[in-house]
# Entry
Amino acid sequence: MVEALIWLGTLVFAATGALKGVEKGFDLLGVLVLATVTAVGGGSIRDVLVGTLPPSALRNEPLLWSVALIGLLVFRFHPRVQALERPIYYLDTLGLGLFAALGAERGLEAGLGPFGVALAGTLSGVGGGVLRDVLSGEVPGILYRAGDLYASAAFLGALVVYALHPHQEEAALFLGALATVLLRVFGRRLGLRLPTPK
Amino acid sequence: MVEALIWLGTLVFAATGALKGVEKGFDLLGVLVLATVTAVGGGSIRDVLVGTLPPSALRNEPLLWSVALIGLLVFRFHPRVQALERPIYYLDTLGLGLFAALGAERGLEAGLGPFGVALAGTLSGVGGGVLRDVLSGEVPGILYRAGDLYASAAFLGALVVYALHPHQEEAALFLGALATVLLRVFGRRLGLRLPTPK
Amino acid sequence: MVEALIWLGTLVFAATGALKGVEKGFDLLGVLVLATVTAVGGGSIRDVLVGTLPPSALRNEPLLWSVALIGLLVFRFHPRVQALERPIYYLDTLGLGLFAALGAERGLEAGLGPFGVALAGTLSGVGGGVLRDVLSGEVPGILYRAGDLYASAAFLGALVVYALHPHQEEAALFLGALATVLLRVFGRRLGLRLPTPK
# Structure
């Protein structure tokens, strides 16, 4: 079940990376690179930081080939994929929540404290998107999109995992991911915004 | 004593990162990300390269929370912090010297030779600032600010540590940091400039 | 023999990095940083990912000093180096082929499958150039230069190494590098282009 959700999240991340490559007018290789980087970049940064080398994504052949396949499909049928904006928004949020919660678990296993665990979770969730943005020549969206609680939601979800994990591992994973999803989705509905400097 | 100076250097780096985020008009999360990346990015790159995983900063909870607190304070009171340009310049130089010297020590412990040690020291000193600049969508200042001997000063300081460490460890650390500080500060006063291509 | 070719490839990569720094108007330090990053960045990213820490380039003092020397020479004599466009193109292609094949070998040693090996090889070949472009404030050329089969050629060469390595190690290395070189050079001559989104 968790495994299936990870696949879903990874492939949606791949699709958002590929869409960015199409939007930028990159060639097929550029689109595949952005798909791959967005899908497996965050988890790989986290694996490097906690010392799991090679990163688990590099050792997951079926996942890598599926990411490339998604990249190809988006490259070929991008107008239809772009029309799926709403489901992509929700699936991307689900992926964010999952990766943040799983990254927090890896941080706990590496013996990190609350802030370290929150950073490991947040990097797992947003690191791929940050790499995608930097490679595309853009400032990472998480730094200035005050109306989209994205990295903040991942940070909160990872903290939830940290707090609940000693009591109940599976519930911690589930509730951490849920906290991320709820904060992002309801944050937008309620018009929550991060403050900006005065 | 060294420990206290490391804290001071890290927190000043956090402040310069947060100021960059404010200047760019990033939101609160963006400001905190730049504070964190600038403060612990250089040492973390170095720790990854020498194989100290997780990086020591990720395991230092009091430091991480303090970095976030500095980010919050700068976000809230940035006009007052910006007015402290001169003390920030000197404290930032002190941080640079310390991190370069400490990074050089980590390189020596990893068995590197002089150039490797100098790179480890330089990356410790300037890596966080380079990440801050790239995430902000800017070309890293160390690449073109010919009139500010910043990375060059870190490189020199790390070489001093390499040369003196076999004789006297503590003096090496102190004199390496001092070399960096003196080269940067007097380089500016004397109008020293790195050459640019003709 | 292979060792001599690695040196040649590394130094040509250093020259292309230094040329980019000159073109950008960076100062001497910036030129040396780009030379170093371009020359040893790809192999270092790969070493981090497969867990060879410190990366082999950081432990190769003669190579590091030679890279810096090349950076100095390009800084001083850049008009003459720029005039060598054609030989640099071929030597750069040779370096790409070699690094991709050697990176694929490191990936095989780390127990990766075909896609992981291809990624390890490609990152070895193009990672330094990607870092060079990002630090220069540019979108990496491999993402959009549809008429230059660069990263694609590295990917193919690494796959060739993966396929042939179990049968004959040395031939695999040689034929993998050759596949990269041929695809890039004849791709250009035949006007092959990667597709771009419609």
Chain A touches chain C at residues 21-22, 24-31, 33-34, 36, 44, 48, 53-55, 58-59, 61, 64-65, 68, 75, 78, 134-137 (CB under 8 Å). The two ends of chain A are 46 Å apart (CA to CA). Chain A has seven helices and no strands.
